[in-house]
Amino acid sequence: MSRNRGSRPANAARMGSAPQHEQADLPALADREGVLADLERVICDAWASFDRPRASEPELDEDLATRLGSPLPEEAGDAEAALGDAARILDASISPSRPLYLGYIGSTGLEVGVLASALAATYDANLAVSAGGADLVEQQSLRWVADFVGFPLAEGSFTSGGMISNLTALLAAREKALPGSRAEGIGGRRAAVYCSDEAHYSVVRAVEVCGLGSAAVRRIPIDSRRRMRPEALDRALAADIAAGVTPVAVVATAGTTLTGAVDPLDEIAGVCASYGDRGVWLHVDGAYGLPAAAVPSTAALFTGLDRADSATLDAHKWLGVQKSCSVVMLREADRLRAAFGHEERYLLHEGDVVNPVDQTLEYSRPFRSLRLWMAFRVHGAAQYRAWIERTLANARRLTELLRAAPDFELLHEPMLSTVCFRHAPSGVADLDEHNLRLARALQGDGRVFLAPAAVDGRGCLRVCFVNFRTTPDEVEYVLEVAREFGERPAELP
Ligand SMILES: Cc1ncc(COP(=O)(O)O)c(C=O)c1O
Fold first, then answer.
1. Is residue 201, in this structure, part of any structural domain at all?
2. How many other CB atoms are there within 10 angstroms of residue 491's CB atom?
3. pLDDT (average), residues 249-262
4. Nearest CA to ligand 1 atom 7
5. Which CATH number does the domain housing residue 292 bear?
6. From the CA of 464, how far away is ligand 1's center (Å)?
7. Does residue 464 belong to any structural domain of this protein?
8. Whole-prediction pTM value?
9. Range of the domain at 335
């Protein structure tokens, strides 16, 4: 951590007054207060529109859509008019903050995150080099999120997303498993990374970027609950080691993207620990699911998390803040510095000063952690736990409704807050196609936004409850709207 702990130099008071300053002739906004008042109104209207579902979704008006094709403006424009246009464009765009946005993995868009984003952008601190007090906020936020989910944090970093958090962890794991590979490349050395059949694609991409090649990914089969099979992992590790292949890491998923399955972390940690003196690095990709480790109804699924070497959590998913705000956490100190630290003539290190850039892939780094810090400060861990439980209850409610509905089919046993199902009325021959068209119709309509998916090759609808604004009553509405379209198959797009 940096020695610069955000305090001013001790002799600041003796440094005299600031030099005389003629205001520079910058193209500053002529009416800052006026524009801010306009922005305040726009934001308050947007927040009010997130409080309940809208009866229909507005379309972008034709005049504005035409103007979006116009060339680069040479002359200065009016800030108020630009703000008005931007607000209309966004109001007619898809926002995951709406209570019935249940597609992919959304968020809540907590209001405090907007305040934090505005403040961070105002000061534009760069968390590449030691930035003073902002570094302390980042470190505190890391400790808070690790405490919240029960990860024994030694070091970590905020990143731009789960993809980069997974890559950061794998680069640290690679340097440990194949020392010197950072400098020399992996040369002829053969290496492998293990993950379940349903791990997120970002794991494959990270392995590619690590220079191991995607052929190094060992897809481990899943069980009936769609979780990695530890005994199959064990066999794959044993076979590779016998063949002279070095295991770089096992990536367990704590909340798969497709169905929310949580791999058996404790058993997987046991397998990892049984190889060699130091064991195989265990990374937990909890980009989506890890917040559920913090709540009573699902905590047991995450037993063994404290044995992992690293973990990813996207606060811009189930912790409700705006994109992007991901966290990578490591159990052992100095692993990030071993993978990323460097000494440049323009970034000298005095003694033990560590610039954040020595622990991350990125150089310019925005102050992402402020959103999460504000959210924990303002709402507290107890409120977060209640919110997360509510989203889990929504998923259970939908599951019950689906079980009771003769015209719907549940495609898996949900472990967290993701549910895949399909509309299966009698008389429809091709259910895969029917459900893909139904998803398209629902997205076009916009009242309920959900995504199409495929489970075991079967086309279906997928909903993911991470938005704290979704109420239990609205869960029923999802099926109501799906029926409204699904019962008229001939009219589906
Ligand atoms: C399990 C999992 N890992 C990684 C990612 C990638 O995260 P991001 O989109 O923040 O890069 C996702 C995204 O949905 C995910 O579900």
1. yes
2. 9
3. 98
4. 162
5. 3.40.640.10
6. 13
7. no
8. 0.94
9. 125-376
